[in-house]
Write a structure and sequence with these properties.
Layout (H helix, E strand, L loop, with lengths): L2 H10 L4 E2 L2 H4 L16 E3 L4 H14 L3 E4 L16 E4 L15 E5 L4 H8 L4 E3 L11 H7 L6 H4 L6 E7 L5 E4 L12 H5 L8 E11 L3 E9 L2 H14 L3 E8 H10 L12 E9 L4 H8 L6 E5 L2 H12 L1 H6 L5 E6 L2 H17 L5 E7 L4 E7 L5 H14 L18 H4 L2 H14 L18
Parallel strand pairs: 2-4, 3-4
Antiparallel strand pairs: 1-2, 5-9, 6-9, 7-8, 7-9, 10-12, 10-13, 11-12, 11-15, 14-16, 15-16
Helix pairs in contact: 1-3, 8-10, 13-14
This protein binds flavin-adenine dinucleotide.
Protein backbone atom coordinates (compact mmCIF):
# COMPACT_ATOMS: atom_id res chain seq x y z
CA UNK A 1 0.00 0.00 0.00
CA UNK A 2 1.15 3.58 -0.64
CA UNK A 3 2.06 6.04 2.15
CA UNK A 4 -1.31 7.67 1.55
CA UNK A 5 -2.96 4.24 1.80
CA UNK A 6 -1.39 3.72 5.22
CA UNK A 7 -2.60 7.12 6.41
CA UNK A 8 -6.11 6.39 5.12
CA UNK A 9 -6.07 2.97 6.80
CA UNK A 10 -5.32 4.73 10.09
CA UNK A 11 -8.49 6.79 9.55
CA UNK A 12 -10.99 4.18 8.29
CA UNK A 13 -9.39 0.81 9.10
CA UNK A 14 -7.28 -1.21 6.65
CA UNK A 15 -10.27 -3.33 5.53
CA UNK A 16 -11.91 -0.20 4.11
CA UNK A 17 -8.96 0.88 1.97
CA UNK A 18 -9.16 -1.10 -1.26
CA UNK A 19 -5.91 -1.07 -3.17
CA UNK A 20 -5.95 -4.50 -4.79
CA UNK A 21 -6.58 -4.24 -8.55
CA UNK A 22 -9.40 -6.82 -8.61
CA UNK A 23 -11.28 -5.33 -5.66
CA UNK A 24 -10.77 -1.78 -6.90
CA UNK A 25 -12.18 -2.73 -10.30
CA UNK A 26 -15.76 -2.52 -8.98
CA UNK A 27 -15.11 1.20 -8.32
CA UNK A 28 -13.70 1.81 -11.80
CA UNK A 29 -16.88 0.97 -13.77
CA UNK A 30 -20.26 2.62 -13.98
CA UNK A 31 -23.65 0.86 -13.84
CA UNK A 32 -23.52 0.12 -17.58
CA UNK A 33 -20.07 -1.45 -17.26
CA UNK A 34 -18.26 1.49 -18.89
CA UNK A 35 -14.70 1.54 -17.62
CA UNK A 36 -13.08 4.68 -16.19
CA UNK A 37 -9.38 5.10 -15.46
CA UNK A 38 -7.43 3.16 -12.82
CA UNK A 39 -8.04 4.57 -9.33
CA UNK A 40 -5.12 4.90 -6.92
CA UNK A 41 -7.37 3.18 -4.39
CA UNK A 42 -10.95 3.15 -3.13
CA UNK A 43 -11.80 4.10 0.43
CA UNK A 44 -15.01 3.50 2.42
CA UNK A 45 -15.28 5.80 5.46
CA UNK A 46 -17.98 4.94 7.99
CA UNK A 47 -18.80 8.37 9.47
CA UNK A 48 -18.64 12.09 8.75
CA UNK A 49 -15.51 12.29 10.91
CA UNK A 50 -13.86 9.61 8.79
CA UNK A 51 -14.87 11.40 5.56
CA UNK A 52 -13.20 14.51 6.98
CA UNK A 53 -10.09 12.48 7.86
CA UNK A 54 -9.91 11.00 4.35
CA UNK A 55 -10.21 14.44 2.71
CA UNK A 56 -7.59 15.90 5.03
CA UNK A 57 -5.13 13.14 4.08
CA UNK A 58 -5.86 13.51 0.36
CA UNK A 59 -5.56 17.29 0.37
CA UNK A 60 -2.25 17.10 2.27
CA UNK A 61 -1.00 14.55 -0.28
CA UNK A 62 -2.43 16.63 -3.19
CA UNK A 63 -4.33 13.59 -4.47
CA UNK A 64 -7.66 14.06 -6.25
CA UNK A 65 -10.86 12.51 -4.89
CA UNK A 66 -13.87 11.13 -6.77
CA UNK A 67 -16.95 10.94 -4.50
CA UNK A 68 -19.21 8.00 -5.23
CA UNK A 69 -22.72 7.07 -4.14
CA UNK A 70 -24.80 4.34 -5.80
CA UNK A 71 -22.93 4.62 -9.12
CA UNK A 72 -26.13 5.02 -11.17
CA UNK A 73 -25.08 8.42 -12.54
CA UNK A 74 -25.20 8.77 -16.30
CA UNK A 75 -22.64 11.51 -16.88
CA UNK A 76 -19.42 9.76 -15.78
CA UNK A 77 -18.97 11.91 -12.64
CA UNK A 78 -18.37 8.99 -10.24
CA UNK A 79 -15.82 7.25 -12.49
CA UNK A 80 -12.12 7.76 -11.77
CA UNK A 81 -10.18 9.23 -14.68
CA UNK A 82 -6.83 7.82 -13.45
CA UNK A 83 -4.84 8.12 -10.21
CA UNK A 84 -7.60 9.44 -7.87
CA UNK A 85 -8.91 8.11 -4.58
CA UNK A 86 -12.52 6.95 -5.02
CA UNK A 87 -14.39 7.97 -1.86
CA UNK A 88 -17.42 5.72 -1.50
CA UNK A 89 -20.24 6.82 0.82
CA UNK A 90 -21.75 3.31 0.88
CA UNK A 91 -21.19 2.84 4.65
CA UNK A 92 -23.01 6.06 5.63
CA UNK A 93 -26.42 4.40 5.81
CA UNK A 94 -28.15 5.74 8.94
CA UNK A 95 -31.67 7.20 8.70
CA UNK A 96 -33.18 9.18 11.56
CA UNK A 97 -36.73 8.86 12.91
CA UNK A 98 -39.49 10.28 10.71
CA UNK A 99 -40.35 13.72 12.11
CA UNK A 100 -44.06 13.52 11.34
CA UNK A 101 -45.08 16.93 12.70
CA UNK A 102 -42.44 18.72 10.60
CA UNK A 103 -42.60 16.24 7.68
CA UNK A 104 -38.82 15.84 7.71
CA UNK A 105 -36.28 13.04 7.94
CA UNK A 106 -32.52 13.10 8.31
CA UNK A 107 -30.53 10.61 6.27
CA UNK A 108 -26.86 9.91 5.68
CA UNK A 109 -25.45 10.22 2.18
CA UNK A 110 -25.26 6.48 1.41
CA UNK A 111 -28.94 5.75 2.11
CA UNK A 112 -30.64 4.50 -1.06
CA UNK A 113 -33.85 6.07 -2.32
CA UNK A 114 -35.73 2.75 -1.95
CA UNK A 115 -34.64 2.48 1.70
CA UNK A 116 -35.76 6.06 2.34
CA UNK A 117 -39.18 5.35 0.79
CA UNK A 118 -39.60 2.16 2.87
CA UNK A 119 -38.66 4.08 5.99
CA UNK A 120 -41.08 7.00 5.63
CA UNK A 121 -44.15 5.45 3.96
CA UNK A 122 -45.49 3.61 7.04
CA UNK A 123 -45.82 7.08 8.62
CA UNK A 124 -48.08 8.27 5.79
CA UNK A 125 -45.30 10.36 4.23
CA UNK A 126 -43.26 9.99 1.07
CA UNK A 127 -40.14 11.37 -0.55
CA UNK A 128 -40.87 13.89 -3.33
CA UNK A 129 -38.30 12.60 -5.85
CA UNK A 130 -38.60 9.16 -7.41
CA UNK A 131 -36.64 7.52 -10.23
CA UNK A 132 -36.09 4.12 -11.82
CA UNK A 133 -32.66 3.58 -10.22
CA UNK A 134 -34.22 3.82 -6.72
CA UNK A 135 -32.67 0.56 -5.43
CA UNK A 136 -29.12 1.89 -5.84
CA UNK A 137 -29.21 5.72 -6.17
CA UNK A 138 -28.27 7.39 -2.87
CA UNK A 139 -29.26 10.55 -1.04
CA UNK A 140 -25.75 12.01 -1.53
CA UNK A 141 -25.61 11.19 -5.25
CA UNK A 142 -29.11 12.50 -5.82
CA UNK A 143 -28.27 15.78 -4.12
CA UNK A 144 -24.97 16.02 -5.99
CA UNK A 145 -26.73 15.57 -9.36
CA UNK A 146 -29.90 17.48 -8.33
CA UNK A 147 -31.89 14.45 -9.52
CA UNK A 148 -35.28 15.13 -11.07
CA UNK A 149 -37.25 11.98 -11.89
CA UNK A 150 -40.94 11.43 -12.39
CA UNK A 151 -42.55 13.80 -9.86
CA UNK A 152 -40.42 16.91 -10.47
CA UNK A 153 -43.33 18.91 -11.92
CA UNK A 154 -45.30 18.23 -8.69
CA UNK A 155 -42.67 18.40 -5.94
CA UNK A 156 -39.60 19.96 -7.58
CA UNK A 157 -36.15 18.46 -8.13
CA UNK A 158 -33.80 17.28 -5.37
CA UNK A 159 -32.79 20.86 -4.57
CA UNK A 160 -36.34 21.57 -3.39
CA UNK A 161 -36.28 18.62 -0.97
CA UNK A 162 -33.07 19.51 0.90
CA UNK A 163 -33.86 21.52 4.03
CA UNK A 164 -30.48 21.10 5.66
CA UNK A 165 -27.10 19.67 4.82
CA UNK A 166 -23.86 18.42 6.30
CA UNK A 167 -20.86 18.22 4.00
CA UNK A 168 -17.09 18.05 4.12
CA UNK A 169 -14.90 20.50 2.20
CA UNK A 170 -11.76 19.47 0.34
CA UNK A 171 -9.50 20.32 3.30
CA UNK A 172 -11.57 18.23 5.74
CA UNK A 173 -13.62 21.10 7.23
CA UNK A 174 -17.14 19.95 8.14
CA UNK A 175 -19.92 22.42 7.27
CA UNK A 176 -23.29 21.73 8.85
CA UNK A 177 -26.66 23.49 8.58
CA UNK A 178 -29.36 21.02 9.58
CA UNK A 179 -32.01 23.36 11.03
CA UNK A 180 -34.72 22.13 8.63
CA UNK A 181 -36.97 25.18 8.78
CA UNK A 182 -38.60 26.37 5.55
CA UNK A 183 -37.76 30.03 6.00
CA UNK A 184 -34.03 30.30 6.57
CA UNK A 185 -32.55 33.49 5.19
CA UNK A 186 -29.63 33.67 7.59
CA UNK A 187 -27.05 33.94 4.82
CA UNK A 188 -26.14 31.94 1.72
CA UNK A 189 -28.09 28.75 1.06
CA UNK A 190 -25.62 25.86 1.37
CA UNK A 191 -28.08 23.07 0.43
CA UNK A 192 -29.05 24.99 -2.72
CA UNK A 193 -25.40 25.53 -3.63
CA UNK A 194 -24.36 21.91 -3.12
CA UNK A 195 -27.40 20.48 -4.97
CA UNK A 196 -26.14 19.89 -8.51
CA UNK A 197 -22.47 20.53 -7.63
CA UNK A 198 -21.58 16.95 -8.67
CA UNK A 199 -18.94 16.38 -6.01
CA UNK A 200 -16.87 19.39 -7.11
CA UNK A 201 -17.45 21.66 -4.09
CA UNK A 202 -17.81 19.30 -1.11
CA UNK A 203 -18.69 15.74 -0.15
CA UNK A 204 -22.26 15.52 1.15
CA UNK A 205 -22.46 13.33 4.25
CA UNK A 206 -25.99 13.94 5.60
CA UNK A 207 -29.15 15.83 4.73
CA UNK A 208 -32.39 16.92 6.38
CA UNK A 209 -35.06 16.12 3.80
CA UNK A 210 -38.56 17.43 3.29
CA UNK A 211 -41.34 14.83 3.01
CA UNK A 212 -44.67 14.99 1.16
CA UNK A 213 -47.96 13.14 1.77
CA UNK A 214 -47.97 9.46 0.77
CA UNK A 215 -50.94 8.81 -1.48
CA UNK A 216 -52.04 5.19 -1.46
CA UNK A 217 -54.85 5.57 -4.00
CA UNK A 218 -53.35 5.55 -7.50
CA UNK A 219 -54.70 5.42 -11.01
CA UNK A 220 -52.50 4.76 -14.04
CA UNK A 221 -53.37 4.97 -17.73
CA UNK A 222 -51.23 4.45 -20.82
CA UNK A 223 -52.50 6.68 -23.63
CA UNK A 224 -51.75 6.33 -27.36
CA UNK A 225 -51.56 9.52 -29.42
CA UNK A 226 -51.31 10.49 -33.07
CA UNK A 227 -48.47 12.99 -32.51
CA UNK A 228 -46.09 14.51 -29.99
CA UNK A 229 -48.08 17.75 -30.28
CA UNK A 230 -51.14 15.85 -29.06
CA UNK A 231 -49.08 14.67 -26.06
CA UNK A 232 -48.13 18.25 -25.19
CA UNK A 233 -51.78 19.36 -25.46
CA UNK A 234 -52.78 16.41 -23.25
CA UNK A 235 -50.37 17.61 -20.59
CA UNK A 236 -52.05 21.04 -20.56
CA UNK A 237 -55.48 19.43 -20.08
CA UNK A 238 -54.26 17.14 -17.29
CA UNK A 239 -52.52 19.95 -15.40
CA UNK A 240 -55.72 22.00 -15.52
CA UNK A 241 -58.17 19.21 -14.62
CA UNK A 242 -56.36 16.63 -12.46
CA UNK A 243 -55.11 18.14 -9.17
CA UNK A 244 -53.89 14.64 -8.18
CA UNK A 245 -51.60 14.41 -11.23
CA UNK A 246 -48.39 12.65 -10.10
CA UNK A 247 -46.49 11.54 -13.23
CA UNK A 248 -46.72 12.26 -16.97
CA UNK A 249 -44.15 10.28 -18.94
CA UNK A 250 -43.87 10.32 -22.74
CA UNK A 251 -42.16 7.99 -25.20
CA UNK A 252 -42.07 7.28 -28.91
CA UNK A 253 -42.71 4.17 -31.03
CA UNK A 254 -39.06 3.15 -31.24
CA UNK A 255 -38.49 3.28 -27.47
CA UNK A 256 -41.56 1.09 -26.97
CA UNK A 257 -40.38 -1.39 -29.63
CA UNK A 258 -36.94 -1.61 -27.98
CA UNK A 259 -38.27 -2.25 -24.48
CA UNK A 260 -40.83 -4.82 -25.70
CA UNK A 261 -38.04 -6.71 -27.51
CA UNK A 262 -35.37 -6.50 -24.83
CA UNK A 263 -37.62 -7.18 -21.80
CA UNK A 264 -40.02 -9.56 -23.61
CA UNK A 265 -43.05 -7.38 -22.82
CA UNK A 266 -46.31 -7.72 -24.77
CA UNK A 267 -47.27 -4.79 -27.02
CA UNK A 268 -49.81 -2.65 -25.15
CA UNK A 269 -51.84 -1.75 -28.29
CA UNK A 270 -52.72 -3.75 -31.41
CA UNK A 271 -50.94 -1.18 -33.64
CA UNK A 272 -48.08 1.32 -33.17
CA UNK A 273 -48.66 5.06 -32.55
CA UNK A 274 -46.28 8.02 -32.91
CA UNK A 275 -46.40 8.87 -29.20
CA UNK A 276 -47.49 7.37 -25.89
CA UNK A 277 -48.07 9.06 -22.55
CA UNK A 278 -48.09 7.18 -19.25
CA UNK A 279 -50.19 9.13 -16.76
CA UNK A 280 -50.50 8.50 -13.03
CA UNK A 281 -52.66 10.32 -10.51
CA UNK A 282 -52.23 9.81 -6.76
CA UNK A 283 -54.47 11.01 -3.93
CA UNK A 284 -56.04 9.90 -0.65
CA UNK A 285 -59.25 8.89 -2.52
CA UNK A 286 -59.25 6.93 -5.77
CA UNK A 287 -58.43 9.48 -8.52
CA UNK A 288 -59.41 7.18 -11.44
CA UNK A 289 -62.73 8.93 -12.26
CA UNK A 290 -61.01 12.34 -12.20
CA UNK A 291 -58.32 11.07 -14.56
CA UNK A 292 -60.63 9.27 -16.99
CA UNK A 293 -62.99 12.29 -17.13
CA UNK A 294 -60.03 14.56 -18.01
CA UNK A 295 -58.86 12.20 -20.77
CA UNK A 296 -62.24 12.75 -22.50
CA UNK A 297 -61.03 16.31 -23.18
CA UNK A 298 -57.84 15.17 -24.94
CA UNK A 299 -56.95 13.71 -28.35
CA UNK A 300 -56.25 10.25 -26.87
CA UNK A 301 -56.64 7.67 -29.64
CA UNK A 302 -56.51 4.57 -27.46
CA UNK A 303 -55.73 3.79 -23.83
CA UNK A 304 -55.03 1.00 -21.34
CA UNK A 305 -56.26 1.57 -17.79
CA UNK A 306 -54.57 -0.28 -14.92
CA UNK A 307 -57.22 -1.67 -12.60
CA UNK A 308 -54.95 -2.73 -9.72
CA UNK A 309 -51.37 -2.65 -8.40
CA UNK A 310 -50.25 -5.50 -10.67
CA UNK A 311 -51.68 -3.69 -13.71
CA UNK A 312 -49.93 -0.47 -12.71
CA UNK A 313 -46.64 -2.34 -12.35
CA UNK A 314 -47.11 -3.82 -15.82
CA UNK A 315 -47.65 -0.36 -17.34
CA UNK A 316 -44.70 1.18 -15.45
CA UNK A 317 -42.43 -1.66 -16.63
CA UNK A 318 -42.54 -0.22 -20.19
CA UNK A 319 -41.19 3.11 -18.94
CA UNK A 320 -38.79 1.92 -16.25
CA UNK A 321 -37.02 -0.69 -18.37
CA UNK A 322 -36.65 1.71 -21.30
CA UNK A 323 -33.33 3.41 -20.32
CA UNK A 324 -31.61 0.02 -20.22
CA UNK A 325 -33.19 -1.09 -23.52
CA UNK A 326 -32.11 2.17 -25.18
CA UNK A 327 -28.62 1.91 -23.66
CA UNK A 328 -28.14 -1.46 -25.39
CA UNK A 329 -28.27 0.34 -28.76
CA UNK A 330 -25.01 2.08 -27.78
CA UNK A 331 -26.23 5.47 -29.04
CA UNK A 332 -23.73 7.62 -30.94
CA UNK A 333 -25.22 10.68 -29.25
CA UNK A 334 -27.45 10.94 -26.23
CA UNK A 335 -29.36 13.97 -25.04
CA UNK A 336 -30.78 14.75 -21.60
CA UNK A 337 -32.41 18.11 -22.26
CA UNK A 338 -35.18 20.22 -20.79
CA UNK A 339 -37.47 22.21 -23.07
CA UNK A 340 -40.40 24.53 -22.59
CA UNK A 341 -43.60 22.80 -23.71
CA UNK A 342 -43.67 24.80 -26.92
CA UNK A 343 -40.26 23.36 -27.88
CA UNK A 344 -40.87 19.64 -27.38
CA UNK A 345 -42.52 18.87 -30.73
CA UNK A 346 -40.03 21.17 -32.54
CA UNK A 347 -37.13 19.17 -31.14
CA UNK A 348 -38.75 15.85 -32.01
CA UNK A 349 -39.29 17.02 -35.60
CA UNK A 350 -35.63 18.04 -35.79
CA UNK A 351 -34.64 14.47 -34.86
CA UNK A 352 -36.90 13.04 -37.57
CA UNK A 353 -35.21 15.39 -40.04
CA UNK A 354 -31.77 14.18 -38.94
CA UNK A 355 -32.83 10.57 -39.53
CA UNK A 356 -34.13 11.39 -43.01
CA UNK A 357 -30.77 12.91 -43.94
CA UNK A 358 -28.78 9.98 -42.51
CA UNK A 359 -27.91 6.65 -44.13
CA UNK A 360 -30.11 3.60 -43.58
CA UNK A 361 -29.32 1.98 -40.24
CA UNK A 362 -29.49 5.22 -38.30
CA UNK A 363 -32.18 5.22 -35.64
CA UNK A 364 -33.42 7.24 -32.70
CA UNK A 365 -35.47 6.53 -29.64
CA UNK A 366 -36.79 9.05 -27.15
CA UNK A 367 -38.62 9.15 -23.88
CA UNK A 368 -39.08 11.80 -21.27
CA UNK A 369 -40.66 13.27 -18.20
CA UNK A 370 -43.27 15.27 -20.13
CA UNK A 371 -44.55 16.95 -16.95
CA UNK A 372 -41.40 19.09 -16.80
CA UNK A 373 -40.27 19.04 -20.44
CA UNK A 374 -37.31 16.69 -19.89
CA UNK A 375 -36.46 14.55 -22.94
CA UNK A 376 -33.92 11.70 -23.19
CA UNK A 377 -32.97 10.97 -26.78
CA UNK A 378 -30.53 8.41 -28.15
CA UNK A 379 -29.45 8.46 -31.80
CA UNK A 380 -27.36 5.62 -33.19
CA UNK A 381 -25.83 4.45 -36.48
CA UNK A 382 -24.80 7.96 -37.56
CA UNK A 383 -22.64 8.24 -40.64
CA UNK A 384 -22.27 12.03 -40.48
CA UNK A 385 -20.29 14.25 -38.10
CA UNK A 386 -21.54 13.34 -34.60
CA UNK A 387 -20.00 16.33 -32.88
CA UNK A 388 -21.54 18.75 -35.38
CA UNK A 389 -24.96 17.11 -35.01
CA UNK A 390 -24.76 17.23 -31.21
CA UNK A 391 -23.84 20.88 -31.31
CA UNK A 392 -26.61 21.73 -33.78
CA UNK A 393 -29.33 20.00 -31.73
CA UNK A 394 -28.12 21.49 -28.46
CA UNK A 395 -27.97 24.95 -29.97
CA UNK A 396 -31.56 24.38 -31.09
CA UNK A 397 -32.39 23.42 -27.48
CA UNK A 398 -30.85 26.63 -26.15
CA UNK A 399 -32.58 28.75 -28.81
CA UNK A 400 -35.92 27.21 -27.79
CA UNK A 401 -35.25 28.35 -24.21
CA UNK A 402 -34.14 24.94 -22.92
CA UNK A 403 -31.21 23.46 -20.99
CA UNK A 404 -28.50 21.11 -22.35
CA UNK A 405 -28.47 19.11 -19.10
CA UNK A 406 -31.80 18.44 -17.45
CA UNK A 407 -31.23 15.92 -14.67
CA UNK A 408 -28.17 13.75 -15.22
CA UNK A 409 -25.67 16.53 -14.64
CA UNK A 410 -22.64 17.55 -16.66
CA UNK A 411 -20.19 15.01 -15.27
CA UNK A 412 -17.17 14.48 -17.48
CA UNK A 413 -19.24 13.69 -20.55
CA UNK A 414 -20.87 17.09 -21.09
CA UNK A 415 -18.08 19.46 -20.04
CA UNK A 416 -17.74 20.68 -23.65
CA UNK A 417 -21.44 21.66 -23.69
CA UNK A 418 -21.39 24.04 -20.76
CA UNK A 419 -20.11 27.07 -22.72
CA UNK A 420 -23.02 26.57 -25.16
CA UNK A 421 -25.49 26.86 -22.32
CA UNK A 422 -24.04 29.38 -19.85
CA UNK A 423 -22.83 32.97 -20.27
CA UNK A 424 -19.09 33.61 -19.70
CA UNK A 425 -19.93 35.67 -16.59
CA UNK A 426 -21.94 32.73 -15.15
CA UNK A 427 -19.04 30.38 -15.78
CA UNK A 428 -16.62 32.80 -14.11
CA UNK A 429 -18.81 32.89 -10.96
CA UNK A 430 -18.95 29.08 -10.92
CA UNK A 431 -15.18 28.85 -11.21
CA UNK A 432 -14.71 31.46 -8.46
CA UNK A 433 -16.92 29.35 -6.14
CA UNK A 434 -14.92 26.27 -7.00
CA UNK A 435 -11.62 28.04 -6.22
CA UNK A 436 -13.01 29.40 -2.93
CA UNK A 437 -14.15 26.01 -1.62
CA UNK A 438 -11.52 23.78 -3.22
CA UNK A 439 -8.43 25.91 -3.91
CA UNK A 440 -6.24 22.90 -4.74
CA UNK A 441 -8.86 21.55 -7.16
CA UNK A 442 -8.81 18.03 -5.70
CA UNK A 443 -12.58 17.41 -5.68
CA UNK A 444 -13.69 15.66 -8.85
CA UNK A 445 -11.35 17.40 -11.31
CA UNK A 446 -12.62 17.08 -14.88
CA UNK A 447 -16.28 17.22 -13.78
CA UNK A 448 -18.21 20.39 -14.78
CA UNK A 449 -14.96 22.08 -15.90
CA UNK A 450 -12.10 20.68 -17.99
CA UNK A 451 -9.37 19.12 -15.82
CA UNK A 452 -6.31 21.35 -15.43
CA UNK A 453 -3.46 20.00 -17.56
CA UNK A 454 -1.07 18.03 -15.32
CA UNK A 455 2.30 19.73 -14.92
C1 LIG B 1 -32.27 3.09 -14.83
C2 LIG B 1 -31.90 4.49 -14.43
C3 LIG B 1 -32.90 5.45 -14.36
C4 LIG B 1 -32.59 6.76 -13.96
N1 LIG B 1 -33.58 7.68 -13.91
C5 LIG B 1 -33.30 8.94 -13.51
C6 LIG B 1 -34.32 9.92 -13.42
O1 LIG B 1 -35.48 9.66 -13.71
N2 LIG B 1 -33.98 11.14 -12.98
C7 LIG B 1 -32.69 11.48 -12.64
O2 LIG B 1 -32.43 12.62 -12.22
N3 LIG B 1 -31.69 10.57 -12.76
C8 LIG B 1 -31.97 9.32 -13.17
N4 LIG B 1 -30.96 8.40 -13.28
C9 LIG B 1 -29.56 8.81 -13.00
C10 LIG B 1 -29.10 8.56 -11.56
O3 LIG B 1 -29.89 7.59 -10.90
C11 LIG B 1 -29.10 9.86 -10.77
O4 LIG B 1 -28.19 10.76 -11.37
C12 LIG B 1 -28.73 9.70 -9.29
O5 LIG B 1 -28.97 10.93 -8.65
C13 LIG B 1 -27.28 9.29 -9.05
O6 LIG B 1 -27.14 8.90 -7.68
P1 LIG B 1 -25.96 7.92 -7.24
O7 LIG B 1 -26.01 7.76 -5.77
O8 LIG B 1 -26.00 6.68 -8.04
O9 LIG B 1 -24.69 8.81 -7.62
P2 LIG B 1 -23.33 8.39 -8.33
O10 LIG B 1 -23.59 7.82 -9.68
O11 LIG B 1 -22.51 7.55 -7.44
O12 LIG B 1 -22.63 9.82 -8.48
C14 LIG B 1 -23.19 10.81 -9.32
C15 LIG B 1 -22.41 12.12 -9.13
O13 LIG B 1 -22.57 12.59 -7.80
C16 LIG B 1 -21.31 12.67 -7.10
N5 LIG B 1 -21.57 12.20 -5.74
C17 LIG B 1 -22.09 11.00 -5.37
N6 LIG B 1 -22.25 10.96 -4.04
C18 LIG B 1 -21.81 12.16 -3.55
C19 LIG B 1 -21.72 12.74 -2.25
N7 LIG B 1 -22.14 12.10 -1.16
N8 LIG B 1 -21.22 14.00 -2.14
C20 LIG B 1 -20.81 14.69 -3.23
N9 LIG B 1 -20.86 14.19 -4.47
C21 LIG B 1 -21.37 12.94 -4.64
C22 LIG B 1 -20.36 11.79 -7.91
O14 LIG B 1 -19.03 12.22 -7.78
C23 LIG B 1 -20.90 11.98 -9.32
O15 LIG B 1 -20.40 13.18 -9.85
C24 LIG B 1 -31.24 7.10 -13.67
C25 LIG B 1 -30.24 6.12 -13.73
C26 LIG B 1 -30.56 4.84 -14.11
C27 LIG B 1 -29.47 3.83 -14.14
Amino acid sequence: MTGLGDRLAAVVGAEHVLADEDVRAAYEHDWKGTRGGAALLAVRPGSTGEVAGVLRCCSEAGVAVVPRGGNTGLAGGALPRGGEVVLSLERLRAVGPVEVADALVEAEAGVTLARLQEHVRPEGLDFGVDLGARDAATVGGMIATNAGGIHAFRHGTMRAQVRGIEAVLADGTVVRRLTGVLKDNAGYDLPGLLAGSEGTLAVVTRARLRLVPFHRARATVLVALASVDAGVRLLGVLLARVPALDAVEIFGTRALELVCASACLPRPFPRPYPAYVLVEAAAHDDPLDQLVAALDHTDAVDSVVAADAAGRERLWAYRELMPEAMGRQAPSVHFDICLPRSGIAVFEKAIQQVLRSEAAGAGAAWLGHLGDGNLHVGIWGLAGDRAALERRLLQLTVSLGGSVSAEHGVGTRKVHMLPWAREPADLAVMQALKRALDPQGILNPGVLFPAAPSS
